[in-house]
Write a structure and sequence with these properties.
- There is one protein chain.
- The chain contains 14 helices and 14 strands.
- It has about 475 residues and is of the alpha/beta class.
- Strands 1, 2, 3, 4, 5, 6, 7, 8, 9, 10, 11, 12, 13 and 14 form a 14-stranded mixed beta sheet that branches.
- Helix 5 links the parallel strand 5 and strand 6.
- Helix 1 crosses helix 10.
- The longest helix has about 30 residues.
- The chain is globular.
- The N and C termini lie far apart (about 55 Å).
C-alpha cells in the first residue's frame, strides 16, 4: 500500500469514527427533546394498570406493547408464547394473638391453606438464626424480617425472600410470615418460592412494618397463636414475551438485545417495577424507528413476562435460543429492570474493554450532564434475580444502565404505592436517551467490547462471588 493510499485510508477511518460519535450524540439529543417515554408510562399505568403475569391485565399489557410497536412501523414484531403455572391471589385472612392483621399472600403460595399454629420469631431468618435455635420453627409458623433488622451483626447476609422461605421450609416451618422492612404499614408481595412441590404446601404472606414489629413484641410476651387461611388460583396457563427486531446491515448475524420485564405485581400499577424500564425500552424502539436507523448489528427489543414469578420469560427465551443455536448470535444483553435516570453503566462478563465504555460515558455526559458515574465492572448482585441472569448464565455479556432511585420509590417496590407519581418525565427522558446511546454504540461498534463466556468462565464467576446459578 502506498503512503498516499494509507493516509487516505486512515483519514476515512477517522472520519467514520467521528461520524459514529456524532450519530451517537445526535441520537441522545433526539431523545432529550422528543422522548415519549413518560407519556407511554402514563398511558400504560392508566389504561392497563398492573401487568401481573397470567391475568387479564397482563394480557392487556402484552397487547399494548405489541400494538405500539406495530404503530411505530415494526414489521418484524411477534409474540413468543410459553407455558406457565398461573398464580393469582384470592382471599386471605391472617390472625395472630386473637387480632386480624392486614396481609398479602406471596406468589406461589398454595391454592388452599387453612393453617393454625404457634408463631415463632426467627429474626432475620438466616442460617445463623436457625443455628442459634435448632428446631425452633419445626411444625410452627416462622415470623421473619424481610430485610436486616437494625442492630444485627455487621456481617449478617441480606438474603432474598426466596432464600429465606427455603431456609424456613428446610427447618420444618409450616408457614412463613414476612415483616416489610419499610416503616409504616404498607403491604408488600413477591414470589416466595419456585419449587413446584413447595407451591402446594407452605403458605407465605407479608405484613406491614408497624404491624410486624408490634407482633414481634407480642410473640416475645408469649402470645404465639396464629392462623393463615387463604384461597388462591394456581393453574396451568400461558403468557407471552413481545419481540421486535431491526435487522443489521453489515453484521445481521450478530445481535444486541435491549430488554426488560413488562410484568408487575398487582398491589399497584407497577410504575417503578418495571413500567419505568419497559416503557423507556419501548420509547427507544420508537425513536430509532422514527429515525430510520439502520444498525450494523441486529437489534432485538424484548419485553419479558413472568420475571416476577422467577425470570420465566427471559429463561424461556434463552432456553429456546440455546436449543436452536441462536444464542451464539446474541453478543450483548442490556437489561432495564428499574433502570431509571442512569448515572453510570454497569458491565459484567466477557473481559470487557472498559476503555470503550469510558469513551462512551464521556459522550453521554456531554449530552446528559447528570451521567456522572461513568462505566464500571458491575457488582455481582446486578446479574442475578433479573432478566439478565439467564443470558449471563448462557455466556452472554451484560450491561445495565444504573440509576439511583429515591428512598420513597425503593420503599414502594412490590407494594401498594408503586404508582406513577414516583416517576418524573425528566427521569424517563434521560433513561431513554442514555439507554439509546449505549444500544447504538454496541450495535455499531467496529469491535465489540466483550466476548462470549464459556460455561467454565460463568461457573468460575458464580463460584468467586459465592453465588449459585439459578434462583
Amino acid at each position: 500500500m502506498s503512503i498516499t493510499i494509507a493516509v487516505a485510508a486512515m483519514a476515512a477511518s477517522t472520519a467514520a469514527s467521528a461520524q459514529q460519535q456524532a450519530d451517537i450524540e445526535a441520537i441522545g439529543r433526539d431523545f432529550q427533546t422528543g422522548s415519549r417515554a413518560y407519556a407511554l408510562l402514563d398511558e400504560l399505568t392508566t389504561t392497563v394498570g398492573h401487568r401481573m403475569t397470567g391475568t387479564a391485565n397482563g394480557r392487556a399489557g402484552e397487547e399494548f406493547v405489541y400494538r405500539k410497536l406495530k404503530e411505530y412501523g415494526f414489521d418484524d414484531v411477534r409474540f413468543q408464547t410459553f407455558p406457565i403455572t398461573e398464580w393469582q391471589r384470592g382471599s386471605l385472612r391472617f390472625t395472630a394473638g386473637g387480632k386480624e392483621i392486614r396481609a398479602a399472600a406471596l406468589g406461589y403460595s398454595p391454592a388452599h391453606s387453612d393453617l393454625s399454629g404457634d408463631l415463632v420469631d426467627i429474626g432475620n431468618g438466616t442460617p445463623a438464626d436457625y443455628a442459634a435455635r435448632p428446631g425452633a420453627v419445626k411444625g410452627k409458623i416462622a415470623l421473619i424480617y424481610l430485610g436486616v433488622l437494625p442492630g444485627s451483626p455487621q456481617d449478617t447476609p441480606r438474603l432474598h425472600r426466596i432464600q429465606k422461605t427455603s431456609l424456613a421450609i428446610e427447618q420444618g416451618a409450616s408457614g412463613v410470615v414476612f415483616i416489610n422492612s419499610t416503616p409504616g404499614d404498607m403491604l408488600i408481595t413477591g414470589t416466595a418460592n419456585l419449587v413446584p412441590e413447595v407451591r402446594s404446601g407452605v403458605p407465605a404472606i407479608a405484613i406491614g412494618y408497624d404491624s410486624g414489629m408490634a407482633l414481634k413484641t407480642q410473640v416475645a410476651a408469649g402470645k404465639r397463636e396464629a392462623r393463615i387461611a387463604m384461597e388462591n388460583v394456581v393453574r396451568p396457563s400461558t403468557t407471552r414475551n413481545i419481540i421486535a427486531t431491526i435487522k443489521g446491515t453489515t453484521l445481521p448475524d450478530e445481535a444486541i438485545v435491549l430488554g426488560g420485564h413488562l410484568d408487575s405485581w398487582d398491589l399497584a400499577t407497577g410504575a417503578v417495577d418495571n413500567g419505568s424500564g419497559s416503557m423507556w425500552v419501548l420509547d427507544v424502539a420508537r425513536g430509532l424507528k422514527a429515525r430510520s436507523y439502520r444498525p450494523k448489528r441486529t437489534i432485538q427489543f424484548i419485553f419479558f413476562m413472568g420475571e416476577e414469578e422467577g425470570l420465566l420469560g427471559s429463561r424461556y427465551f434463552v432456553d429456546q435460543a440455546v436449543k436452536d443455536g441462536s444464542i451464539a448470535k446474541i453478543k450483548y444483553m442490556i437489561n432495564t429492570d428499574m433502570a431509571l435516570d442512569p448515572i453510570s453503566y454497569a458491565i459484567w462478563g466477557g473481559a470487557p474493554d472498559m476503555t470503550f465504555f469510558g469513551d462512551l460515558a464521556r459522550k453521554v455526559q456531554a449530552v446528559y450532564p447528570g451521567f456522572t458515574g461513568g462505566a464500571h465492572n458491575g457488582f455481582a448482585g446486578g446479574v442475578t434475580h433479573s432478566d439478565s441472569q439467564p443470558f449471563f448464565e448462557a455466556g452472554v455479556p451484560v450491561a445495565y444502565p444504573k440509576g439511583e432511585w429515591s428512598k420513597e420509590a425503593l420503599a414502594c417496590v412490590h407494594t401498594e404505592c408503586d404508582k406513577l407519581d414516583l416517576v418524573s418525565p425528566d427521569q424517563m427522558t434521560h433513561s431513554a436517551g442514555i439507554g439509546a446511546m449505549l444500544l447504538v454504540a454496541l450495535a455499531d461498534a467496529e469491535t465489540l467490547p466483550a466476548t462470549p463466556m464459556s460455561a467454565e468462565e460463568v461457573d468460575a464467576f458464580f463460584a468467586k462471588e459465592g453465588l449459585k446459578k439459578g434462583l
